[in-house]
Design brief:
It is built from 12 helices and 12 strands.
Length: 305
Amino acid sequence: MKALIATEKPFAKEAVDGMNDIFATAGIAVALLEKYTDVQALYDAVADADALIVRSDKVSREVIAAARQLKIVVRAGAGYDNLDLAACTARGITAMNTPGQNANAVAELAVGLMIYAARNSFCPGTGSELKGKKLGVHACGHVGRLVATLAQGFGMEVYAFDPFVPASAITNAGLRVCASVEELYATCRYVSLHIPATEQTKKSIGRRLLSAMPQGGCLINTARKEIIHEDELEAVLRERPDMKYMTDVAPANHAILQASFGARYFATPKKIGAETAEANINAGLAAASQTVRFLTAGDTTFKVN
């Protein structure tokens, strides 16, 4: 059997070395494709692979078609919208992610963006403290729960909304439960987004929710750009000079927002939520371990299709 690690943006050397060790122990050959600039290189490399591990690389219908004997593809990270799940399912290929491996890195960034916003983007002038402020966590997965824990350490009052998590689990974590997404936004000065980009969530964060936020409202997005209704976000920022938007996924209207709203808007130059050495290593090792367990024991834990 053969596993292909295909990454336009490579894993850290420590991660690759660890992945190679995991596969070698299991008797599985490994091929490494890094920094490729032509998708044809991926088509060629995946042709005889039984397993494929990627980061943010697109595993399209065309990639699946080129992978004649592929059995599993693993996205080293939580989000998996770069995988064509329908194409995988049609071919009987198992698709997985590695939930939780990047969670701490993303959570720390979300809190960092809150501090940056509270302190006027580190510009001269009087800022504010996070202590005593209300934070709404929109979705209580791995990242959302860690953001809540970190925020509690700052003395914030943390609220949460997640229709897929039992209310008891939220209250047991010391959080206040909001009965609706509308209540979350109307209650909290800060809202941190941790929802995936699905047909139901795309463009779901717009005027209706943002306009309801209290004075000094600040939206933090370390999830996906697609969940924001960008035109409505721009309109609310124009209508409400007290509002702020901080993100590590720059919107299509980034240049307009940057020119129009100064320190009230900030986007990192690229998506950096998972860009820590620790997250890179954790996700790579988890992807390799999951691949081995699937190929050798049929373990489908973390299957997403």
